[in-house]
Amino acid sequence: MRTRYSGSFCACMVGIGIAATTTRPAMGAAAEDTNSPSESALTEIIVTATRRAERLQDVPMSITALSGVELSRRGASDVNDIIANSPGLSNPAQGLGTSNNLIIRGVATGAGSTLAQATVSFMLDDIDLNPGAVTFGTADPKIVDVQQVEVLRGPQGTLFGAGSLSGVVRFISNKPDLDNFSGSVQTTGSSTDHGGTSEDVYGVLNAPLVDGKLGARLVAYYDNDAGWVDDAGRGLSNVNEVHTYGARFSLSAKPIDELSMIFTVMDDRTNEMGSTATFYYAQPGLPNYQTEQPYYSVGSATLNTHIYNLLTTWTPTWGTLTSTTNYFDRFIDGTQDLGAVLPALGLPFTGPNASAPSVAPNTVHDISQEFRFDSPQMGPVRFTTGAFYQRVASDPTQIVTSNSPEAPLILAANVNAVQWQAALYGSGTYTLADRIDFTAGVRVSKDVVHFDTLESGVLAGANSLGNEVDKPVTPRAAITFRQTTDLTWYAQAAKGYRVGGPNVTAGNEAALSSYHPDSLWNYELGSKVRLLDGMLNLNTSVYDIEWSNMQVGLVTAQGFNYIGNGGKARIYGLEEEMTLRATRWLEIGGTVSVDHAATTSAAAISRVSFGAFGPAPDLEPNAATTNGVLSGYRLPGSPELQGSLYAEAQFPVLSYQGFVRLSGQYVGSAYTDFDSQGLKFGNYTVGNLRAGVKFPHLDVIAFVNNFTNSAALSSAEDLSLFNVPTAFRIRPRTVGLTLRAGF
After folding, report:
1. Which of 59, 223, 322, 496 gives 165 a disulfide partner, CB atoms 3.0 to 4.6 angstroms apart?
2. Rounded CA gap, 60 and 522, in Å?
């Protein structure tokens, strides 16, 4: 994110930047944020978006990179804090972290997550945390002891494969330091308006076991995240409380200078005690933070994640050989009581304390192996080539309303699914006259998804057995022109795709038992520039996306949810990032993204009906009809306009260093259905304030998040089967204090 240039030529096109003339670290080294009041220029950032360490200034794609130090300064604790600082990235999650739905550049066909593979690859180091199709829920790792977070916008199919249809969000963890003993501990307490109190604590310990040869790093954390949603039907308060705890242990060995091995094991457990679903429409006499009872259940979810990774790197003089071996195991179990909706379905439900429990367990086993060779960084020709294999097995059992004494078995769907992916890829760059880079790459894959479903119950559909087989080819080409050391222009074209899979609940529609892959092409122009001797950095990119055979979440006439392939769409837009070191003690920054996303062909897609609740106030008169999606309809799920601003001042407090940071985020309007129909959400601004003092070995930070106490809607859901419009609101005003100590 940093660059330097003086002159009127580049002033007409804002660019990207952050490239001071600092010493470039070795491959894999941390990108340290060394900003301090005594420095005037912004710091260079090193990224690994191309699977090798390069200056952000030299990479021909749109990237946001935030170091672990910068994330700590901003108080980032989860993926939503990354979104606030990354243009073009949104998350209309319909619930808590296990319902994350990351969207980049408007590549979405709905607000909620589905059983389809995500359009954004969410990675911890080289591990995809949401692999394949037929996986319930999403991973939601805490931002603890990370070296850097990188947001790669645009398809990354050439180097990262399936699932990176519109981009990648990648957490890069800190690795053991073999030479220095160190550690830190942080604790935070906070209180949420109309909610409870939260507390979290984490600790990091790094210990060299044999100087320069063997070292270990341990990270442990616990987070009690207070709820703020009340269950009006049951008389319960703060039902959406979340408990998260886990640990990550890494052992690093370097027997010789050219060889390193890092073994990492991680265990993460999240318990979501209740749903964040609230009334979409205002209810007389009730505050905003009330659940849908008696129409919709509270719900809860448990998510357990286990990761084992072995990273081996050999660096002879003729290149770098890397082997990454992963085993990823995730179990999620969602439960809720659907008894209140059975009468609406014409099904029996009796007894004053009757219940109709629904459970949806899902286990994913992911084994992957990647071998990669990187040529040396010197010379006009550089290239990366590799081979990848992955097997994802999912054995979910979804039971909707158990066979309790008060209620019949509505639907039980036992699904076994296995996905295999094998791929060869390569990417090379040729540099001409030390100014122009020509880059070309391609990935050739074979994906197979095998599924077997068995259904029973009152609303059971047809059993199905089948395979989805695809042989995608995902090329990428780019041209980079370094006009000066601090002014870079680039153009690129890249393709991304995601796999198809089975439909678990397509009802009696046998023809809907599976859906097919979709893909897109992204065409992009951008600039990266630094002005005012490195004190002003600008990132700009414009893009045009052509999306084919879109995977769309649909509803049958009987009210069953399924996934179908729904035509084509075009998305074009602009993204901008800016950082200004106004003085030695004041830094100002901001982002903005705007896009237009609409269908370019007609598709026969069922529209939402709101039944007895009637259309929402923001709907057009024809919204509660059923018809096809026509060409020119706006895509649902993400806003067309987003932006953020921040200002941070650093100043002395007695003989210590203090700071104050004010930040704000604007999220534009979005809709749950095509053509700006369905439920409207977004269109809000939220502000945060942080202030603190850095003492020797101790940081003291106070904060107020959402200081205006906005009750804005971050997402919404059309529950067409239950006829209940549902809202998901941002967390109310939260006041807290953080203490951080290190040694």
Report:
1. 496
2. 13
Tell me the backbone φ, ψ of residue 282, rounded to 5 degrees: -60, 135
Summarised one tens digit per residue, pLDDT across range 76-96 is 888 888 888 899 999 888 777
Torsion angle of the four alpha carbons 468, 637, 121, 512, in this order, in degrees rounded to the nearest 10: -10
Rounded to whole angstroms, how far apart are CA atoms 418 and 289?
A: 40
Which position has the token pair 């330091």?
A: 177
The CATH-assigned architecture of domain 10-350+358-465+472-742 is Beta Barrel (2.40)
Strands (E), 341-435: 357-374, 381-394, 397-400, 411-432
73: three-class secondary structure by DSSP: helix
Longest dimension (CA), the chain: 81
Please give the Cα distance from 94 to 729 (Å, whole number): 9
281: closest CA among 724, 733, 730, 708?
A: 724
Beta-sheet pairing, 120-124 with 167-173? parallel
**C-beta of residue 170 within 8 angstroms of C-beta of residue 708:** no
Q: CB–CB of 696/585 below 8 Å?
A: no
| Domain ranges, ordered by start, for the chain | 10-350+358-465+472-742
In the predicted model, what is the mean pLDDT of residues 228-238? Answer: 83
Tens-place pLDDT, residues 620-653: 333 333 346 788 899 999 999 999 999 999 999 9
Contact 438, 429 (CB under 8 A): yes
CB 564 within 8 A of CB 552: yes
